Task: inverse folding
């Protein structure tokens, strides 16, 4: 059997996307509490996110041009990995106060964000993109993808989402962007 490069590269991206999800899952989490989730988007789901990015970008006028630009990157990539974190507190209350509030209840009541959610997301993203880079798959962390994914409810209740487009091509579509 012969498998041409296009098919092999598509499979490499998909295999890596699954591994990237595992890397994000196994990344260290504050207090040992895992409040993260991941998903892999291809085909129609990936196209839906790109279209939502264009919709959001169009509604933002000139300031939305980055959303429209990044939608083109989503179109050009083989798969997108979503990594999300919940806004839940860790229950450390008076022991922590890193959010700037007296305790977790005050943080939650004010609608503020527990410091550990974005920290856990950042660590998970670092682990995920390091694995992608180690496997020579072009990638970039994009908040724009996460914003569209959250708008579409793709990770359910998770609203703090980033996207990682994965690509195999002669030149990375994620750099030298206009």
Result:
């Amino acid at each position: 059997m012969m498998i041409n490069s296009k098919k092999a590269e598509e499979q490499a991206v998909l295999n890596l996307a699954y591994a990237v999800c595992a890397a994000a899952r196994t990344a260290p989490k504050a207090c040992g509490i895992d409040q993260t989730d991941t998903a892999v988007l291809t085909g129609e789901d990936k196209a839906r996110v790109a279209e939502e990015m264009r919709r959001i970008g169009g509604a933002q006028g000139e300031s939305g041009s980055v959303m429209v630009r990044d939608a083109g990157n989503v179109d050009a990539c083989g798969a997108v990995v979503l990594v999300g974190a919940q806004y839940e507190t860790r229950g450390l209350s008076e022991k922590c106060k890193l959010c700037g509030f007296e305790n977790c209840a005050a943080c939650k009541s004010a609608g503020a964000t527990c410091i550990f959610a974005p920290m856990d997301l950042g660590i998970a993203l670092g682990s995920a993109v390091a694995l992608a880079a180690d496997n020579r798959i072009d990638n970039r962390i994009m908040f724009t993808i996460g914003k569209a994914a959250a708008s579409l409810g793709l990770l359910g209740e998770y609203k703090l989402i980033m996207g990682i487009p994965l690509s195999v091509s002669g030149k990375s579509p994620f750099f030298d962007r206009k």
Notes: The mean pLDDT is 93. The chain has six helices and four strands. Strands lie at 36-41, 79-85, 138-139, 160-167. Residues 5-26 form the longest helix (22 residues).
